[in-house]
Design a protein that fits this description.
It is a single chain. The chain is of the alpha/beta class and 368 residues long. Helices cover 26% and strands 25% of the residues. It contains eight helices and 16 strands. The strands form four sheets. The protein has an eight-stranded mixed sheet, with helices on both faces. A four-stranded mixed sheet has the order 13-12-11-14, with no helix packed on it. A hairpin with a 7-residue loop joins strand 11 and strand 12. The radius of gyration is 22 Å and the shape is globular. The termini are far apart.
Length: 368
Amino acid sequence: MPENLQYRQNPNFPNRYISPEKLFFYLQKNFRDYISEVGKSYLGKPIYKMKLGNGAVKVLAWSQMHGNESNATHAMLDLLEIFKCQPELKEILFSEITLDFIFMLNPDGSEKWTRRNALDIDMNRDFLKLSSKEFPILKNMAEGGDYQYGLNLHEQRTIFTTDGKNPATLSFLAPSVNHQREINETRKKAMAVISRIYENLNPLIPNQIARYSDEFYPTSVGDNFSKIGLPTILFEGGHFIDDYKRKGTRKYYTMALYEGLKAIAELKGATENWENYQKIPENRETHYDIIYRNVKLNTDFECILDIAVQYREELRNGDDEISFVPIVMEVGDIGIKKGWKEIDCTGKTFVSERKFPKLDAEVDFRIE
């Protein structure tokens, strides 16, 4: 592992779902001297910032802007656990940087495991309108905090690969500053950090790290922070084979967060080897979770087709972990796409109360 970083999972948070109340209690109990409340959500939940270090390079990071993307919160919690056991790594890192980490910018969405906030606003598209109560907290901090870097921490769906075969377990982006996708000094600073992360982690998960398309989104957070001169690095945690609870992703996301902070501490705004960013393969949208191939439907004419299924993540009342509900996404010839699981139904029977699988509905058939 990079720099003798010994990965440890925080035992207090074993599930992919993190209850806001459990997180708040943990932070108050264990890190009271490092956290402060920087605002409240629409439903009145606190939003906490943790401050670590006293170095000259100031970094602002935020997790769970989308409530159903918990990997970054896990990564920070796991890093705190690692630093308990390897305090020397913490001391070296935070003598160079000061990190302000906002946990759960969207606690209302996090509680319900929804992407959007309680008003159904996508905060990642709220930079201009400022319609949400929560996003202005982040924006005001970023614009008034004299930060040298921003870390925009997210997760992506299982549909992405690096090469049509290997999952994009981690993806990164140095967001564009205009529609021309100009590569200016701000973007080069972000690219240099991403290049360091890729260099150190690619040997551990070869062909599983990608970069996002740098299409410019006028209302998005990362693009606009980059536009105003804050080098912003988008992290995306993705799929790991047979790991829908994302424990493997969580491990490498944690390592990527550490490597990113370490690169920032060493580069201090330099753009050394930024060109290597261009060598990282771009995300490709190639997969569904399941594809049933060659399904013969119970019709009065010959009808053989493919059925593509994607899991929808839900938090059910009373549960402390999310459930995965299979949803029919596409029916027909799905030859150009692949499934993480493929089932050849040649010679088998399609058993269902309906003749055709219903799009955007829960799977209600079986194959015998």
